[in-house]
Write a structure and sequence with these properties.
The chain has 181 residues and is an alpha+beta fold. Helix content is 15%, strand content 43%. Strand 2 and strand 3 form a beta hairpin. The radius of gyration is 18 Å and the shape is globular. The structure holds flavin mononucleotide (FMN).
């Protein structure tokens, strides 16, 4: 087909440049959790997209490198807890390459319908059953049908941009991170 971008001559896209560009894209942050073999696992994500309302569904993009990914595929269900600006330390904790038990140690959670752990005090959370898993290069796209939702206290969200988090003041106003040169 004429005009396809993939047919355009030119150098390949530099991944570092792509990363710099995507760093300008501000996102919310969630902790995706699952429960497999009676153990909790979870990781911080910003690759999350609401897909449809009928039925309610959402997509998360997980790296194959994450320990949580195969566990989530095996369990067939997961939850996503949407973080408030005051929950930055949870985002940092669940992004660390540490054992799952350490991630959850001392963290207040409650259990959803499927037994999955959801983080207390989040803006809200969804519980999903996995509808499909689609390989996407070094990631896997997990499509979930939402089986339950809960709304927590509404306030400033945790916002990620330029590889950092927005600061929140007492009035709940956000200041975005400065671009890194
Ligand atoms: C703000 C932020 C967003 C992230 N988004 C994603 C994401 O969308 N998908 C992903 O696979 N990893 C994402 N990560 C990285 C994982 O949280 C990280 O690799 C984690 O250590 C994986 O944990 P696990 O190996 O215990 O599963 C993100 C990290 C941060 C700090």
């Amino acid at each position: 087909m004429a005009g396809r971008v993939t047919d355009a001559p030119g150098p390949p896209v530099d991944p570092a440049g792509f990363r710099r560009l995507m760093a300008r894209w501000a996102t919310g942050v969630a902790v995706v959790t699952t429960r497999a073999d009676s153990a909790d696992a979870g990781l911080t994500v910003n690759g999350l997209l609401s897909v449809s309302l009928r039925p309610p569904s959402l997509l998360v993009s997980l790296t194959r490198d994450a320990d949580t990914t195969p566990l989530l595929e095996r369990s067939g269900s997961f939850a996503a807890s949407f973080l408030g600006a005051d929950q930055r330390s949870l985002s940092e904790r669940f992004a660390r390459p540490i054992p799952s038990a350490e991630k959850f140690s001392g963290v207040a959670v409650h259990r959803g319908r499927t037994g999955v752990a959801m983080l207390d005090g989040s803006l809200g959370a969804v519980e999903c059953r996995v509808v499909s898993t689609t390989p996407a290069f070094d990631h896997v796209l997990i499509l979930g049908e939402v089986v339950a939702i809960e709304l927590g206290p509404d306030r400033a969200p945790l916002v990620f941009q330029h590889s950092g988090y927005a600061e929140v003041d007492r009035e709940g106003r956000l200041t975005l991170p400065r671009p890194r040169s």
